[in-house]
Write a structure and sequence with these properties.
Immunoglobulin-like, six-stranded mixed β-sheet, Rossmann fold, alpha/beta
């Protein structure tokens, strides 16, 4: 790429030639010849630099928690024997672009260490976009791009949170009792024992054997903790505020799941959107997998959250506690939350917000609390 300096040099050279022709003095020809030599030297330096300049980047961390540092090493080499300018390294830091200068010596590899701060959760593009160099006189500009395309996963950082309750004053035993009366998974049969419920009796088999025989059922698993996160674009917010809300959603979800998994309680986190999926686990070692899934969420789902709540009603029989994490409250969402609470499990709502609570939101929160829904607010630390 040519620069403005080349046009100035060409104009000056042409003017010297014209002066030499008009006045007939050799000094002007000498000046024009010298400028032509400078331009040719600059062109040769730029062409050599373009052909030999290489850039490689190295990262120490593939995954970091939000707020931690990302360390990047940059190696630049070039084999141009002609004078060249200091190169400019253009970097990507999350969603922002930055520049820094670096001196590169010929026939050597020069290194630079750069540290970024991982400010927001997500798959962040940290790295070098391009390296720009040129001749010493600044008449030509050339660039090269590193072969590596690096994206660092910035994981949500869980914070301290109150443990969700299973059915007020129950800690899950009532939900377990309900699941024991779900006679859909017979495991075996045994002889009748006085006190067995009559609906457990296998009447056909009892008639063949001539004695009362009852069904024996599988031991039910403990109730799930169902975490529903709003995967739509957080709002109303723009720019950095939107990214802060995404951090709040992901870190709240990760905090609840991490707390439950420490007690080996089963956790389910369905994710709706362009790439639907579901996290299911009951071991603390699986927390990292959920954090990676949250970091990969694009938050561009056009699936209405109130519809998500209606679809998830089918799980209520196996659910002991429902955790809802969202940035918005609307009448349809409130109705969906109340329906979940009426079906038995305890429900806790985490409302992520950056602004003061509005009156209409207070009215909806009061309605939820009247139906024994626990409401918590999440704001940036």
């Amino acid at each position: 790429m040519i620069t403005r300096r080349l046009w100035v040099a060409l104009s000056f050279t042409a003017a010297l030639y014209l002066l030499g022709l008009g006045l007939g003095k050799q000094i002007y020809y000498f000046g024009a010849a010298l400028m032509t030599l400078v331009i040719l030297l600059a062109l040769l330096a730029a062409a050599t630099l373009k052909a030999t300049m290489r850039c490689e980047i190295f990262f120490r961390e593939k995954e970091v928690l939000r707020g931690e540092k990302v360390h990047m090493g940059v190696d630049i080499s070039q084999r141009c024997p002609f004078p060249a300018r200091t190169v400019t390294v253009r970097m990507k830091r999350g969603g922002r672009a930055e520049e820094t200068e670096m001196s590169v010596r010929p026939f050597r590899t020069d290194s630079m260490q750069i540290t970024f701060s991982a400010d927001h959760v997500g798959m962040e593009p940290f790295g070098v976009d391009s390296v720009v160099g040129g001749d010493l006189f600044g008449m030509f500009r050339v660039s090269c791009r590193p072969k590596e395309k690096w994206t660092t996963a910035v994981l949500p950082r869980p914070f301290d949170i109150d443990k969700p309750s299973f059915m007020v004053s129950d800690e899950g035993r009532s939900a377990l009792k309900l699941s024991q009366e779900d006679y859909t998974s017979p495991e075996d049969t045994r002889a009748y024992i006085p006190g067995d419920a009559l609906k457990r009796v296998h009447w056909k088999l009892s008639a063949r054997r001539g004695e009362l025989t009852v069904r024996r059922y599988e031991t039910p698993a403990p109730p799930d903790t169902l975490i529903l996160m709003d995967n739509a674009r957080p709002g109303p917010a723009e720019g950095d505020e939107e990214r802060v809300l995404r951090d709040l959603l992901c870190e709240t979800c990760a905090a609840v799941a991490d707390l439950q998994l420490k007690d080996s309680s089963p956790v389910r986190v369905p994710m709706y959107g362009e790439a639907p999926g579901e996290f299911v686990a009951d071991e603390p070692s699986h927390s990292l997998l959920l954090q990676e899934m949250l970091a990969a969420q694009p938050f561009d789902s056009d699936f209405p959250f109130e519809r998500v709540l209606r679809l998830e009603l089918r799980r209520m029989r196996r659910t002991g506690a429902v955790i809802i994490v969202t940035t918005r409250l609307t009448p349809p969402i409130v109705e969906g939350i109340i329906c979940m609470r009426r079906m038995g499990p305890s429900v806790r709502l985490y409302l992520a917000s950056l602004k003061t609570e509005e009156e209409k939101v207070r009215d909806m929160v009061s309605r939820l609390q009247n139906h024994l829904v626990e409401v918590c607010y999440v704001t940036p630390a």
